[in-house]
């Protein structure tokens, strides 16, 4: 009887194949840690980067989002040129910085995969984002033809605007009115991110105890929040009277699926126009929550925990921005 003889491969034959498989897993693992909203934004960021490469007569074989091998030959000059080209094209400073951060993140992955060497990676990592001070100076001198919807600065709503929005929605007894009031409370009274709101489930709200559970993507953990009085009232009004269908707190058009981040962004923009505010976003409402909490004396560490931040740098920004410059001055 013939017997199959298994071929024994030499290590130098297997090594390159194993390396390629590991490189693919490296990218898959990275994508797996991102929210769908972040993955979608990164695909857009890298599409702009590929368009820039074509402008300078460089063509990539495969989409850079899908293959790390395409990053071979990347240099700090190309990355720096992309940043400057975006500025010259009139993109908002925030958009330039976000797209630069995406490109640098994939360069780091390419370095980890052995595609970019250490000196090259170090130089690319040294391409700096544009600070707010430098950004303001640039905006004063460059001719801006803003080519993105991202605002240069987040908007902080006054308490009068917040209460006017809530009053308008409390008067709306329709399903949409009840839903939007709870949505607004979760964004402006609890500082939830848009993606976190998407993942909320009806079962995650305990109306008897007045608490809800939310998954914080940035710190990879579930948190329990005590509802404010207005949030609890809105939740009871929505769940007990409107009776949302499906597992998600805010259902989308597809049965069993949640309202998307795009849908929430669009709806918040429409709510802003009710009180005369154009281009209101969920991030503006989170910024409003953090600024109000800071001005009312919330300690830095408590703000960090409640906001779902891993470090203190972001909540510290809110404290610095909210400080009264001449507080404590005696004349």
Give an account of the 3D structure:
The protein is mainly alpha-helical. 56% of the residues lie in helices and 4% in strands. The protein has 14 helices and three strands. It has a three-stranded antiparallel β-sheet, with no helix packed on it. Strand 2 and strand 3 form a beta hairpin. Helix 3 (76-88) packs parallel to helix 5. It is globular. It starts with 10 loop residues before the first helix and ends in a 9-residue tail after the last helix. The model has no long low-confidence stretch (mean pLDDT 87).
Provide a concise account of the structure shown.
By secondary structure, the protein is mainly alpha-helical.
Count of helical stretches: 14
The termini sit apart by: 104 Å
How would you describe the shape?
A: globular
Strand composition percent: under 5%
> What is the averaged pLDDT score?
87
Record the strand order, biggest sheet.
1-2-3
What's the SSE pattern?
A: HHHHHHHHHEEEHHHHH
How many distinct beta strands? 3
Oligomer: single chain
Determine Rg (CA atoms, Å). 24 Å
Any low-confidence stretches, pLDDT <50, length ≥5? none
- Estimated helix fraction: 55-70%
Which structural class do you get from the secondary structure elements?
mainly alpha
Main sheet summary:
3 strands, antiparallel
């Amino acid at each position: 009887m013939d017997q199959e003889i298994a071929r024994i491969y030499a290590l130098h034959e297997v090594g390159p194949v194993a390396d390629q498989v590991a490189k693919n897993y490296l990218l898959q693992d990275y994508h797996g840690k991102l929210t769908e909203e972040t993955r979608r934004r990164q695909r857009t960021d890298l599409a702009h980067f590929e368009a820039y490469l074509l402008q300078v007569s460089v063509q990539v074989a495969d989409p850079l989002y899908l293959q790390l091998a395409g990053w071979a030959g990347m240099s700090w000059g190309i990355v720096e040129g992309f940043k400057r080209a975006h500025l010259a094209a009139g993109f908002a400073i925030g958009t330039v910085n976000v797209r630069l951060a995406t490109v640098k993140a994939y360069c780091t992955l390419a370095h980890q995969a052995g595609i970019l060497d250490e000196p090259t990676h170090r130089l690319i990592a040294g391409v700096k984002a544009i600070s707010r001070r430098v950004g303001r100076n640039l905006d004063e001198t460059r001719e801006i033809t803003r080519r993105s919807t991202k605002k240069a600065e987040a908007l902080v709503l006054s308490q009068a605007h917040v209460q006017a929005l809530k009053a308008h929605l409390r008067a709306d007894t329709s399903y949409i009115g009840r839903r939007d009031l709870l949505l607004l409370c979760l964004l402006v009274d609890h500082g939830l991110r848009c993606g976190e709101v998407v993942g909320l489930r009806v079962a995650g709200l305990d109306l008897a105890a007045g608490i809800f559970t939310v998954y914080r993507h940035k710190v990879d953990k579930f948190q329990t929040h005590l509802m404010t009085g207005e949030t609890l009232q809105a939740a009871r009004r929505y769940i007990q009277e409107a009776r949302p269908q499906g597992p998600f707190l805010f259902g989308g058009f597809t049965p069993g699926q949640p309202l998307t981040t795009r849908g929430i962004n669009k709806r918040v923009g429409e709510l802003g126009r009710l009180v005369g505010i154009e281009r209101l976003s969920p991030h503006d409402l989170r910024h409003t929550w953090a600024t109000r909490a800071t001005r009312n004396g919330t300690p830095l560490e408590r703000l960090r925990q409640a906001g779902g931040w891993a470090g203190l740098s972001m909540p510290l920004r809110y404290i610095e921005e909210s400080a009264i410059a001449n507080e404590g001055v005696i004349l």
